[in-house]
Amino acid sequence: MDSDRIRQQFAFCLEMDQEKNIGRQTYLSDGARKENDAEHAWHMAVMTLILSEYANEEIDVLHTISMLLLHDVVEIDAGDTYAYDEEGKKTQRQRELAAADRLYGLLPPDQAEKMRALWDEFEACETPEARFAHTMDNIQPAMLNAAAGGKAWSEKGVHLSQILERNKNTANGSEALWNYSRENFIEPNVKNGQIKEG
Prior knowledge:
Blueprint: H1 3-16, E1 23-27, E2 34-36, H2 37-51, H3 61-70, H4 75-78, H5 86-104, H6 109-124, H7 128-147, H8 151-156, H9 160-166, H10 175-191
Antiparallel strand pairs: 1-2
Helix pairs in contact: 2-3, 2-7, 3-6, 3-7, 6-7, 7-10
């Protein structure tokens, strides 16, 4: 056993525990509290196992799940940038790149390269797996927001145009899931006033 290697691996695994402390803006389905990044990643991984049959293209499910489990770890350093925080988005990329360098750099070089490549693939959104991962990243909060009665959308005064702009590429991973989300999660909350029109 390479003692340096295993020490680096455990250092990374322990650092990942910090993801449980990164709060998001999406409420759990019962509306009692907001989810954290670790819960978000786990939930999307399960959803990918169940919903991958709706991908526009055939995907490697394990590869997609690996990407989803790792894509938000940069928020340990960079923090969560709310989907509709235009000011925060201005520095998001810079903050997340620095975080990726540090966090993936905790690993042994071969694993650091592999895990960083998964994050870069997600960010580039050019492979079938990355496109489906982005679909999950947008559908999961929409599902929870709808289940919680549109609470987060209402509190933030979100407009339909903002949601549609954020989801402009969601169908690239799965047209079927985007259509389902729009018809069952988004449009009912426009009708009941939880999402503002326009």
